[in-house]
Amino acid sequence: MTPATFRWMSQDVPFRPGETIAAALCAAGVVSYGRDQAGAPSRYFCGVGACQCCLLNVDGRPLEACLTLARPGLSVTPLELDHA
Hints:
The protein is mainly beta. The chain has 1 helix and 7 strands, in the order ββαβββββ. The chain has one domain: Roll (Ubiquitin-like (UB roll)), CATH 3.10.20.
């Protein structure tokens, strides 16, 4: 049976039922999701949605990876922040 996947950048990331996007990315070895406004790496941090360090663009919407369940076919990319 082929595992369910979502798309992170240019790769398919497998996940288990009930797993969050952050958990699946971590299991796939993805530890940084891009850069924040200060230029520091954005990544999974608190795991409860309090810090918003794991905000990602999920099918065109900014969502917290630690709270968002992975679903087949999702398109997940770094959140593009306005550095102006």
